[in-house]
Design goal:
alpha/beta; Rossmann fold; 3 domains; 5-stranded parallel β-sheet; 10% strand
Length: 414
C-alpha cells in the first residue's frame, strides 16, 4: 500500500526555519505506530539536475496533504504564497485533502487574516491552524496526530493525467514519434531507452508540469500523432488540457466571489467562447460542471431575468415554476457580460452594466455569479466589480486561445 504524500511549504531564509523543517520531516517519515508518509520537500527530494519549480507543481497536484510552516519569513515568500493559494483551491474542491497551517514565531490568526495574499486571496483562515504548543516536540506530536488517519486519495494530477496517459498508451505510437515528442522544445525532458509505457508517462508529465506551455506542446504533439489518433480522442485530450494555463490564485478568487455573492471583472476579450471555461475548469476541475449563461447586450433587469430563466430552465414554460426551479440549481451559475465593442471604446465605462443592475441581479438571484469581461485592461474608473487577480498578462489570453484554436482546427481537419 502506498504511503500518503505530505507536501511541506516553508521558507528557507533562516537557520531556525530549516532546523524545524528537518525535525518535522524526520517525524513524518518514521514508520513507527503505522505512521509513515512520503514527505515532499525541496530540501530533501529535489536533485541538483531536476527542474525544481516543475517538481513543486507536480507535488501540489499529487499530495494528500500540505503543511504550511508559516513563519514571519514564510509570510513574505512569494513561493509560500503561491503554494498556499494553490492548495487552498484544491482543498475547497476536495474535502479529503488536508491543509494545515502551523503558526510559528509571532504569526497569529489576525496577521494571517490581514495579509494581502495569504488572508485576502488564499483565505487561509478558513482552514485548520495548529497553534498553542509549548515547544517543538509538542508541535510535532500535534501535527503527526492530526495526520495519523490520512489516506492516499486520487489527486487532480492523477484525475487529469491518468485518462490522458491511458489514451496515449492505447495508441500505436512508434518509438520515433515518442522520442520526437519527448524532444519538444518546451517539454524539458530527454528520451532514454525506457519502455513505451515509461516514455508515455514521461511525455504526459512533461506536458502537465508546465501549465502555461501545455496547449502549445499539445499542438506540436498532435502533428506527430496525426496518423495514430482519431478526432474524438484528440478532442477529449484537448478538453482535459485547455484549463490548466489559468492561475490557481485566480481560481481561488473566483470560488470566493461565488461564496460571497460578488461580481467579478476579468481583463479578457474571449470570455464567452474560451476564457470562462478555462477559469471554471481551473476552479472546479471535477466533478462540478458550472452553467454558463450569456447576458449579451442586456442592460435591463427584466431582459436579464428572461435570459437567466430561459437559459437555465428551457423546458419550464410557467414563469413561477421556472423561478422556483432556478433557485434549486446546485451547480455554479455564471452570468457573463461580454466586453464592449471596439467602436464604443471611447466611452467604455458607460457600456458596462451599472452597479444598480448588478445589485438587483445579486439580490434577486444569489445563486448567480456575475462575470464581467472588460477587454485586455480593467478601466481605473470601473470600481464596483472585484477584479479577478492575478490579472491576465498582456497577450496571454490571446496566445493561449491561438494555441487552442490551432489544435481545434487541426483536429477538425483530421
Amino acid at each position: 500500500m502506498k504511503s500518503p504524500k505530505v507536501f511541506i511549504s516553508h521558507s528557507s531564509k533562516t537557520d531556525q526555519d530549516l532546523a524545524l523543517l528537518d525535525k518535522v520531516c524526520d517525524a513524518l517519515e518514521q514508520k513507527d505506530n503505522n505512521i509513515g508518509f512520503e514527505v515532499l520537500v525541496d530540501r530533501r527530494t529535489i536533485q541538483p539536475d531536476d527542474l525544481w519549480h516543475t517538481c513543486i507543481n507536480e507535488w501540489m497536484y499529487e499530495c494528500d496533504a500540505v503543511v504550511v510552516l508559516l513563519s514571519e519569513a514564510a509570510m513574505q515568500s512569494l513561493w509560500v504564497q503561491f503554494e498556499a493559494t494553490f492548495m487552498s483551491v484544491r482543498r475547497r474542491n476536495d474535502s479529503n485533502v488536508r491543509l494545515i497551517v502551523v503558526l510559528l514565531e509571532n504569526v497569529t490568526d489576525q496577521t494571517v487574516k490581514e495579509h494581502p495574499f495569504l488572508g485576502q486571496v488564499a483565505h487561509l483562515n478558513d482552514f485548520q491552524f495548529l497553534r498553542d504548543y509549548k515547544d517543538e516536540q509538542e508541535l510535532i506530536d500535534k501535527l503527526t496526530d492530526t495526520l495519523k488517519d490520512l489516506c492516499p486519495q486520487p489527486s487532480p494530477f492523477e484525475e487529469l493525467d491518468e485518462p490522458f496517459r491511458e489514451i496515449l498508451s492505447k495508441i500505436d505510437i512508434n518509438d520515433r514519434v515518442l522520442e520526437t515528442a519527448l524532444n519538444l522544445p518546451q517539454c524539458g525532458v530527454r528520451p532514454r531507452p525506457w519502455s513505451k509505457r515509461r516514455r508515455v508517462d514521461m511525455l504526459v508529465r512533461a506536458i502537465f508540469r508546465e501549465p502555461r506551455q501545455a496547449l502549445s506542446n499539445f499542438r506540436l504533439l498532435l502533428k506527430g500523432l496525426a496518423l495514430k489518433i482519431d478526432r474524438h480522442t484528440a478532442e477529449i485530450l484537448l478538453d482535459i488540457l485547455k484549463s490548466i494555463w489559468v492561475h490557481a490564485e485566480a481560481a481561488a478568487n473566483l470560488i470566493e466571489a461565488i461564496k460571497r455573492n460578488e461580481p467579478v471583472a476579468i481583463n479578457c476579450t474571449k470570455l464567452e467562447n474560451f476564457t470562462e471555461k478555462c477559469y471554471a475548469g481551473r476552479a472546479w476541475p471535477f466533478p462540478a460542471k458550472p452553467r454558463f449563461i450569456s447576458a449579451g447586450a442586456s442592460r435591463d433587469f427584466e431582459q436579464v431575468k428572461s435570459v437567466l430563466l430561459g437559459s437555465a430552465t428551457p423546458k419550464v414554460l410557467d414563469p413561477e415554476q421556472a423561478e422556483d426551479y432556478f433557485y434549486k440549481i446546485e451547480e455554479p451559475i455564471l452570468l457573463m457580460f461580454p466586453p464592449p465593442e471596439p467602436e464604443e471604446a471611447q466611452n467604455v465605462v458607460d457600456t458596462f452594466p451599472d452597479k444598480f443592475l448588478l445589485d438587483e441581479i445579486k439580490g434577486k438571484y444569489p445563486n448567480v455569479t456575475i462575470l464581467l469581461a472588460t477587454g485586455s485592461k480593467i478601466p481605473d474608473t470601473l470600481h464596483y466589480p472585484i477584479p479577478l487577480k492575478p490579472l491576465l498578462e498582456e497577450g496571454d489570453e490571446l496566445e493561449q486561445f491561438r494555441y487552442y484554436s490551432e489544435s481545434k482546427t487541426y483536429i477538425e481537419d483530421m
